[in-house]
Amino acid sequence: MNPSLKLLLLLIVALEISFTTIVSLNVALVILAGIYLLAKRVKLRTLLWLLIVPLIPAIGLWSTQYINGTGQKELMAWVLFTRIYAFVFTGATLTLTTDVLELTDSLEQNCHLPAKFAYGVLAAYNLAPKIKHEVQVIRAAGLMRGQTLSFWSPQLYFKAILISITWSQNLAQAMASHGFVEDAPRTHYRKVRVRPVDWGLLIGGIILLQLGVFVMPWH
Amino acid sequence: MATIALEHLSYTYQTAQTPIFEHVTAKFPAHQFTLLTGPSGTGKSTLLQLMAGLLPLPADHGHICYDQTQLQNISAPDRSKRVAMMFQNPNQQFAMDTVEHELIFALENQRTDPHIIHHRLTSALDFIGIRELQHRLLNQLSGGEKQKVALAVIVAMDSDVILLDEPFASVDPDARVSLLRRLVELRDQRGKTIILADHDYAGYDQIVDHVLQITPTHQVVELSRSDWPAFFAAFQPQTLPAWFLPVPVDQPLFALHQVGLRQGQHELVRPTDLQLHAHRNTLITGANGTGKSTLFEALVRLNPYSGTINYDGHDIQKLRRKRYARHVALLFQDAEAQFFNITVAEELAQSQKYAYGDYFTPTRIQSALTQLNLAGRDEQVIYTLSEGQKKKLQILLMLIMQSPVLLMDEPLKGLDLSSIHALVKLLQTVQAATQQTLIIISHQLTGLTPLIDYHLRLADHQLQYVGEVRHES
Amino acid sequence: MKWVKDWYLSDIILLALIGVFFGIIFLGTNYVYDVLTAVFAPLGLSQIPNELLLGLWCMPGMLAGYMLRIKGASVLGEFLASVVEMLFGGQWGASTMISGILQGIGSELGFTLTRYKHYDWLGLAATAATTTIVTFGWDLARSGYGKLQLWLLLLFFVVRFCSMFVFGGLLTRAITDLLDRSHVLKTTHTN
Ligand SMILES: Nc1ncnc2c1ncn2[C@@H]1O[C@H](COP(=O)(O)OP(=O)(O)OP(=O)(O)O)[C@@H](O)[C@H]1O
Ligand SMILES: Nc1ncnc2c1ncn2[C@@H]1O[C@H](COP(=O)(O)OP(=O)(O)OP(=O)(O)O)[C@@H](O)[C@H]1O
Ligand SMILES: [Mg+2]
Ligand SMILES: [Mg+2]
């Protein structure tokens, strides 16, 4: 499916289930997303991981409602529990199966997102592995100069921002010297199209969701 | 094809009092190779950025002309066909993830017809001779490989003028030779104009057409041919002195047992046993990307490794991080990594406060600053120092800390020859008094050799001492 | 789309990079969150750690607004941080982006209400307050807060505001003071 339309569909789903209280709908979404992920050959281990990661926040929300809720405590507790899983699994259909570059291309070509936003964020994203290492380096360098930095130390964030500033200027200069001009037209080597079937999937998905929310007698 | 002319160019940084350039008039002829020189901090980077249009030139500050056209009158989309720049730092030069995608990105920016993009891209890679890197992730390339990719991008974009700001600062000698050969081909076969700033002039006298110098009086003047021999003499290729092999001891500083290093899927160093020695200076050399920095990061626990590393008889994984950091410090390849404050004076104060030894008294610090030509900059914000100035300050800060062991990753990067001599002298004086152990990674050896006792070489995934066997007398 | 012209490529990269950096630093707080959640769960108060740390997650937005002083910086800063977080496979999938926009709008409102003139304690207090209010409104629905007992809601609200003020106010101020002195941030914008 076209990445932009997929993102749009997922946003609609996330928004709508935030306001509904149907456990079975959440479960159905998790199952659908799970099937999609399996069909796309996502590893079973990754799927298991998706089940484990949200467990603590899910239990947190569940217990808060269960103990301190008003009205139908038990129902609400389970709604919230399953809602988190619905968020995670539907979200994974994008993050685990769509290449970030493909999404960028599509946002630029199909949604006419200005190229500076598309490539600016992409450039930063591509530096992420380096950034992970850099955070460790900041901490170690601090120790070597007698300074312990933890997540509430202004210096840690100051260093992070300084590096961000230097890198952003370097990257912007490098992109400019690779011919990138803000707000100027570009050609596209990898063409991304919105095919009728993409529209079909989007509209079909939305209709299905409404059926699930308003029509289906879940109980 | 473009001749570049500077006409009455003046430039001063907003936050600085002294100008960098004052009414400079100079010419960079078309199809020729010009070497731009000048001591650290005179404004080479500034000039190149002005010429590339990356630093805007205020009105009434003279002109930069490409043939007859003023730079600011060349429309932004056409600029990349006129001039492209290659930067000193091989990182943060690319927006995309892989080599191929970066080239496509650049060609798309130039509005190249998508049908010919593939052809342009492969022929540029072939020209530089790095076709095998086409699908590699940029993050996983070595410094030298990244610089080759950067050059390939410029070749694909087919810019008339190529500006290079110390492109070889983190590149090993082999990669440097091969990159220089490409540049000469670009001039001879494709008529490119090439302007390159560097500190290490070795080998240029055979290649370049002009040498331009930025003078202390903020001018740019050409060095006449007759002065070339004297100018290049200090940079004759050196043969390494014959160091001795270390004699194995019972209590080495570091003892590595079956230590292996890898990055991702990639094996860098095969499991090996090795000793590093206290109160001696060890030089580590090896080509780009062989894993020298990775080794240092393993020694300070910033990178995983297999096997065990003992420091002074203790497994480093079992030592408290904070305590260990005060024993074994690392001078990072990137100077800014070591700064935590704002002004030069604040940095010096912090190092003094937490120092491990008391060798560096205020008087000694002052004389070291003078020696390194950094005096009088107490209130300057560190982030406005030039690359060379940052490097010197970084080294001084770590020396003041007086950790028993200092690992130095490319300490000479971006330094001019007189700075190197001053620095090596300072290191020798300090070491005579404090017995600090230095372990040094360096590509650049000019001036450094008097400091070295042992030589460790990293090649073919092997880490081995090289040198002669010492005969007992 | 006039606002698009106000943004330079380097600003966009800067905000996205700050988003990545902060996201990675925050990952280190996850274990604090997990432990606290487990401790508070039997009391039905396991949202407390979430409330305590939320200010940290909203910091990119408040900081961006305070640091860059451009209209829309908070929204864009927080949104980009959430996009990057989502791409990394953050815990909340696409709803991360919705939260990101709302948190950003919340932070932005504080600066809007003070007419983009108060880059001082007043502005910071305002942005902490509006961020608290907007995000709390969203959690009434998304996290089912609407169905909780009143005393608990009040407690959560107060804790959340304190967290916003500590991280978005005090810490942001400390960081930007350092930045101001370092002169590295020369905004080229004039509004
Ligand atoms: N943004 C800035 N604000 C104020 N001063 C600056 C700024 N950037 C550079 N300088 C100063 O301008 C001078 C020239 O800097 P530049 O980086 O061009 O030198 P360089 O010749 O490239 O030196 P190096 O060989 O060390 O790289 C230096 O003294 C530096 O301290
Ligand atoms: N996170 C990573 N994932 C995969 N490969 C990496 C990663 N980080 C570094 N590398 C690669 O590992 C190799 C070793 O890098 P290292 O920095 O140790 O080399 P080096 O010997 O210090 O080179 P140089 O002389 O260029 O400084 C390089 O090819 C580098 O691109
Ligand atoms: Mg320079
Ligand atoms: Mg290295």
From TrEMBL, chain A:
Keywords assigned: Membrane, Transmembrane, Transmembrane helix
Bilayer topology: Multi-pass membrane protein
Origin superkingdom: Bacteria
Main subcellular location: membrane
Subcellular location as annotated: Membrane
Coiled-coil intervals: none
Regions crossing the membrane: 6-39, 46-63, 75-96, 199-218
Entry's Gene Ontology cellular component terms: plasma membrane
Keyword Lipid metabolism appears in the UniProt entry: no
Protein known as: Energy-coupling factor transporter transmembrane protein EcfT
UniProtKB/TrEMBL annotation, chain B:
Pfam families with a match to the protein in the record: ABC_tran
Native species: Lactiplantibacillus garii
Gene3D superfamilies linked: P-loop containing nucleotide triphosphate hydrolases (3.40.50.300)
PANTHER family linked: ENERGY-COUPLING FACTOR TRANSPORTER ATP-BINDING PROTEIN ECFA2 (PTHR43553:SF27), HEAVY METAL TRANSPORTER (PTHR43553)
ABC transporter domain residues: 4-241, 254-473
Alphabetical list of InterPro entries matching this protein: AAA+_ATPase, ABC_transporter-like_ATP-bd, ABC_transporter-like_CS, ABC_transpr_CbiO/EcfA_su, ECF_ABC_transporter_ATP-bd, P-loop_NTPase
UniProt name for this protein: ABC transporter ATP-binding protein
Protein's membrane topology: Peripheral membrane protein
Molecular function GO terms recorded: ATP binding; ATP hydrolysis activity; ATPase-coupled transmembrane transporter activity
Source organism superkingdom: Bacteria
A GO term from the CC aspect: ATP-binding cassette (ABC) transporter complex
Keywords: ATP-binding, Cell membrane, Membrane, Nucleotide-binding, Translocase, Transport
Record localization: Cell membrane
Protein family: Belongs to the ABC transporter superfamily.
Automatic annotation (TrEMBL), chain C:
Protein name: ABC transporter permease
TM regions (residue ranges): 12-32, 52-68, 80-101, 121-138, 150-171
Organism superkingdom: Bacteria
Family annotation (Pfam families): ABC_cobalt (PF09819)
Keywords: Membrane, Transmembrane, Transmembrane helix
